[in-house]
UniProtKB/TrEMBL annotation, chain A:
Pfam families: Usp. InterPro entries: UspA. The lineage of its organism: Bacteria, Pseudomonadati, Pseudomonadota, Gammaproteobacteria, Pseudomonadales. Residues 16-163 form the UspA domain. It comes from Marinobacter adhaerens. It comes from the Bacteria. This is Universal stress protein.
TrEMBL record, chain B:
The lineage of its organism: Bacteria, Pseudomonadati, Pseudomonadota, Gammaproteobacteria, Pseudomonadales. Residues 789-799 have a biased composition (Polar residues). It is an enzyme of class 3 (hydrolase). InterPro entries: AAA_32 (IPR041699), Lon-like_helical (IPR046844), Lon_proteolytic (IPR008269), Lon_Prtase (IPR027065), LonB_AAA-LID (IPR046843), P-loop_NTPase (IPR027417), Ribosomal_Su5_D2-typ_SF (IPR020568), Ribsml_uS5_D2-typ_fold_subgr (IPR014721). Residues 777-799 are annotated as: Disordered. It comes from the Bacteria. This is endopeptidase La.
Length: 288, 799
């Protein structure tokens, strides 16, 4: 049912960098900590990406431009100089935060500052082997958004692995849930990503099977082997429906701390995929 | 005048006839149900224990070691067994005022069940409520709620964004909020390009942007209200879940405890509290905070589950905390914490509905304990307050538990002095302790007493788990009890002394390998006690035998007599002779008490010397003036003299000094005297006689010596065997005297002589000699006065 992970022979190394998208928001710094944690375990380089959003710069160039406060609703004039200054400040804060976080374990890092459209700039920097880490929502979290437009776009368009980070309740006994369906290649990539997660966290794993999927005892043994865990640490659950509420319910029951699924899987291919991501309050790794 | 005859052996000792004791050993004798000879105390206890009126608490007064505690406890236990068991009391959390824990009364024995029920409820809450929050139903409803609210919240923004998009205006998220700008194909138009727009187009864009900004402002400003609404709806959902979860267990408990409205009210308060704190139960892993669940515990303050009848409590350390209870604290990281579970009841709580026995001296010596006790008895309720708070030393916030109504009969045990002092100085005392139970020190020794006293001894012996006493040992103990009472017609009721002698006799019987305690073992116990306490006595006797302290026991001396005194050291006392001397010369009717002048004499002794002085004047000076300057001294006495027991000896020695008639040193004298020369009883006669006997024995053979003592003291004699032996062999004599004349005749061998109608004493009589010498003193004084007057008038003339 699954392909063997390519890097099983040398589990301590990764083939790509860890890219983390920094925009100065609280969630982006949380994502930075998660990215640094992964890089510290795998030894990968960390590349911070800070994009000076072109649309934002342009909008400030209008004489009538005003900014409506996300919390207060108060409207005030917006000047291009102010926006430039703000972006520079956020970039230097991001640089400091990145350097500080990576210095704690002695890894290598660099920050790429680009001007343009965020999704395009990130996609231009990220290779297929790189892991892209970003907060599931950026500055729009304040007025109540639960999934930002950048996250939506990158999940859909990224060629490599994407980790949508979100801060969730600490669950000492929580499990990593990996969704599998009939797409063998996608399953293999999801299992491989899961193996990398549990290699360092030593958490048990739940295989969440799509409605029509089954798994034999031999397959199960193989998956456990691929994941590098005991068979007793592996549990199988079937998903009766792809309704986001049902999926969220099952993940709660499993005390899931992270969900791993392939971009190719049915859950993300169906029209309600974005609703599912909105409903899930846990980090989600989306593999190619 | 016939001289008094010396006492016989039978008169100086009241033997206990063994035929009065109808048993072989004390094993054959039944226990006494009631203490013997303490009818007054028993009636007082019965009255005090029975009366329900306020303030009728008891004070049992009697000497220490009289067995007050045992008697009171035994009596009250019997009495209490017939009374109902008082209720249980517990403290619970007060949900309205957390610093004032509530008190709940339950029927006896139900406190434990209530505590268990609440503990089980708390345990159920610990698991059932988090489980309810973990349930799929709750999570789904919560998710729905949150999604709905998020949707409503986001909807406004989304609609504005849609409207903006429709008008080719971009809504752009910035770090601080949102901004709008014209766009084309999803990209914001370059401001330079915008300059090329026609004025109409620009006006259209800008007015739309302004409109969108206003809408956005309104939408964002509604977000806090919507968030509040979410919180309220989540709270309502939580409450609903908790209500549903709690319904079963609390309803069950309400039914079970429906007979106690206080508990039903408390259970309702618990339910409200849990609902109010529903969110605190949500943490399924760590469970609700321990502090929260601890609020539902029950502090069972008084548990009468095992109590039979009314409680009888003895508080051996009656300080404020032990009586009224206390609030303990737990140290956590250097800070002290307390809560209602750390309230500890005192002996007043435990004795509530029954009896509390307290040692009066102990309660008076503990800071604030006496005041606390009175406060509880006056108010009829127990308030638990710390000592620091009562003294006003601390002002930190602490608990003020609800006072518990109290109905307790307090029995104070103390000596008589304490009772009288409290009666005199404490105005509350007699209001609160109206029943006086006075212990008898001694019991009557009559024909009926032997059987009862023997049963009392047998009861004691069995209580001490000692060997049985043989009849002879009991007889010896009865005789010793008379000696301890210092009265042939009394027996001591002093419980501790009797128990100690019995225990010691049992020890000596054990040493001798005997199965029963015999008279010899009892005598050994008495002798050993005497010996252990004899160091000072022996040193004193040694001083006499070596002549350091001068005491003559043979011959005759003018103006010198052997007086007798008693020294009390700790629990033991012994007698010893003291040489009393006198001087006499002409003067103005003055008898100088050297002891008083040297401030070594007490007031009673001074009074006795004054009586003596007036006796002399009355008998020998008649209507004239007593021309005498005399002095009296206790030789080699350095420790002070008190009492009037030497006044007969002092009179005799003073008369000897006046008359120059010698006194027989073979006698020692004790007795007090009134102004008419009648001899009155004194104390410690046994010790005095034995003391003189021992001195005589150590000075050589006892032959012809004796003691003069008041006739009214004869029935107090219970002398030692060796003294009795000497009396029986007529080597030692004891003369009972009634008047000073008898003493004079016995001491001097001269007839004292009675005055005739003219007040003249017969020739050659002792009194005649005294009167004759006093006349000479008077003449000498008169001559001197005349000379003095002549000298002074001559002087005047010369002047």
């Amino acid at each position: 049912m699954t392909d063997r992970p390519a890097d099983q022979a040398d589990p301590g190394t990764t083939t790509g960098r860890v890219l983390v998208l920094l925009d100065g928001s609280r969630m982006s710094y949380a994502a930075l900590q998660a990215a640094v944690g992964i890089a510290a375990n795998t030894g990968a380089d960390v590349l911070g990406v800070f994009v000076e959003e072109l649309n934002q710069l342009r909008s400030a160039g209008y004489g009538f431009a005003r900014e409506v406060g996300g919390s207060s609703g108060i409207s005030r004039p917006l000047a291009a100089g102010d926006v430039e200054q703000r972006m520079q400040r956020l970039a230097s804060e991001a640089r400091r935060a990145l350097a500080g976080a990576v210095a704690s374990y002695g890894g290598r890092q660099s920050l790429s500052v680009a001007r343009g459209h965020v999704i395009d700039e990130v996609l231009a920097l990220a290779g297929p082997q790189d892991l892209l880490v970003l907060g599931r929502v950026g500055w729009s979290s304040e007025p109540g958004a639960r999934l930002g437009s950048t996250a939506k776009g990158l999940v859909r368009r990224s060629r490599g692995r994407v980790l949508l980070w979100c801060e969730s309740r600490a669950e000492p006994l929580g499990r990593v849930v990996v969704f599998l369906n009939d797409h063998h290649g996608a399953n293999g990539r999801a299992v491989q990503a899961t193996a990398e997660v549990v290699r360092h966290s030593h958490r048990p794993v739940t295989l969440l099977l799509g409605a029509d999927s089954t798994v034999s005892a031999d397959d199960l043994k193989g998956v456990a082997q691929d994941l590098g865990i005991q068979e007793s640490e592996l549990r199988v659950r079937s998903l009766p429906s792809t309704d986001p509420a049902v999926v969220a319910g099952i993940l709660r029951q499993e005390r899931a701390v992270e969900l791993v699924l392939s971009r190719e899987c049915t859950l993300l291919q169906e029209p309600g995929a974005e609703r599912l991501l909105v409903a899930l309050n846990l980090p989600v790794t989306v593999t190619p | 005048m016939p001289l008094p005859t010396p006492l016989t052996g039978d008169q100086v000792y009241h033997v206990c006839p063994e035929n009065k004791l109808d048993f072989v050993t004390t094993d054959d004798v039944q226990d006494l149900d009631q203490p013997y000879g303490q009818d007054r105390v028993l009636r007082a206890l019965e009255f005090g224990a029975g009366i329900r009126a306020e303030g009728f608490n008891l004070f049992v007064l009697g000497p220490s070691g009289a067995g007050k505690h045992e008697l009171v406890e035994r009596f009250l236990s019997l009495n209490a067994a017939r009374q109902p068991v008082p209720p249980d009391w517990c403290h619970v959390y007060n949900f309205r005022f957390s610093d004032r824990p509530g008190a709940i009364q339950l029927p006896a024995g139900q406190g434990q069940q209530f505590k268990k029920d609440m503990s089980e409820l708390a345990e159920e809450l610990r698991t059932a409520i988090p489980a309810a929050f973990e349930s799929e139903e709750y999570q789904a409803r919560l998710q729905e709620l949150q999604e709905e609210m998020a949707k409503r919240q986001h909807q406004g923004l989304f609609e504005i964004q849609e409207e903006a998009n429709r008008n080719n205006i971009a809504m752009i998220t910035t770090p601080a909020g949102f901004t709008f700008a014209p766009m084309r194909k999803g990209e914001v138009i370059d401001p330079e390009e915008y300059k090329n727009f026609s004025d109409e187009e620009k006006q259209l864009v800008e007015s739309k942007v302004e409109e969108l900004q206003k809408k956005l402002q309104q939408t964002i400003q509604q977000i806090p209200r919507m968030r509040k609404e979410v919180r309220e709806r989540v709270h309502a959902l939580n409450e609903e879940m908790v209500q549903l979860t709690l319904g079963g267990p609390i309803g069950e408990l309400r039914g079970k405890w429906s007979h106690l409205p206080d508990i039903v009210d408390y259970l309702d308060a618990v339910r409200e509290d849990v609902v109010e704190h529903a969110e605190a139960f949500q943490d399924g892993d760590n469970g609700p905070p321990a502090g929260l669940l601890a609020r539902y515990k029950v502090n069972l303050l008084v548990d009468n589950a095992e109590t039979v009848g009314a409680p009888v409590i003895y508080e051996d350390l009656p300080n404020h905390q032990h009586l009224a209870g206390q609030i303990e604290h737990r140290a956590r990281q250097g800070n002290l914490y307390t809560d209602f579970t750390l309230i500890r009841g005192g002996s007043m709580h435990r004795a509530n509905g029954g009896y509390l026995i307290i040692d009066a001296r102990r309660v008076l010596t503990q800071p604030m304990a006496w005041e606390s006790l009175k406060r509880i008895l006056s108010s009829g309720e127990i308030r638990i307050e710390s000592l620091e708070r009562l003294y006003g030393l601390v002002s930190t916030v602490s608990l003020q538990p609800e006072p518990i109504p109290v109905s307790v009969k307090v029995v104070l045990l103390g000596d008589r002095m304490l009772y009288y002092l409290l009666s005199h100085y404490d105005p509350d005392f007699l209001d609160l302790f109206k029943v006086e139970a006075d212990f008898e020190d001694d019991l009557d020794r009559n024909e009926e007493c032997y059987e009862l006293y023997a049963r009392m001894i047998a009861t004691m012996a069995r209580g001490l788990k000692m060997r049985p006493l043989e009849r002879s040992a009991v007889a010896r103990l009865i005789e010793h009890a008379s000696r301890l009472a210092a009265d042939q017609r009394k027996l001591t009721a002093h419980d501790r002394v009797l128990r100690d002698i019995l225990s010691e006799a049992d020890h000596w019987a054990g040493q001798a390998g005997a199965d029963t305690v015999e008279a010899s073992h009892l005598q050994q116990a008495i002798d050993e006690r005497e010996y252990r306490a004899s160091r000072v006595r022996e040193r004193s006797r040694e001083q006499i035998s070596r002549g350091v302290v001068m005491i003559a026991t043979t011959g005759e001396e003018v103006a010198q007599v052997n007086g007798l005194s008693v020294l009390r050291l700790g629990a033991s006392m012994f007698g010893q002779p003291t040489r009393i001397t006198a001087t006499a010369r002409p003067g103005k009717g003055q008898v100088v008490d050297i002891e008083r002048e040297a401030k070594l004499g007490g007031p009673i002794h001074s009074k006795a010397v004054m009586i003596l002085s007036r006796f002399l004047a009355s008998r020998y000076a008649g209507d004239g003036e007593l021309s005498l300057s005399a002095s009296l001294a206790f030789e080699q006495s350095y420790g002070g003299v008190e009492g009037d027991s030497a006044s007969v000896a002092e009179t005799c020695v003073l008369l000897s000094a006046i008359s120059r008639v010698p006194i027989k040193q073979a006698f020692a004298v004790t007795g007090s005297m009134n102004q008419h020369g009648e001899v009155q009883a004194v104390g410690g006669v046994n010790e005095k006689i034995e003391g003189f006997f021992d001195v005589c024995k150590e000075a050589g053979d006892v032959r012809g010596q004796g003691v003069l003592l008041p006739a009214s003291n004869v029935e107090h004699l219970m002398l030692r065997a060796d003294v009795r032996q000497a009396i029986a062999e007529d080597r030692f004599r004891i003369y009972p005297i009634s008047s000073i004349n008898e003493a004079i005749e016995l001491l001097t061998g001269l007839e004292p002589g009675e005055p005739d109608s003219n007040g003249e004493f017969p020739e050659n009589s002792f009194n005649h000699r005294v009167a004759e010498r006093l006349e000479k003193f008077a003449e000498a004084s008169k001559k001197r006065d005349e000379n003095g007057e002549a000298n002074s008038s001559g002087g005047k003339d010369r002047d």
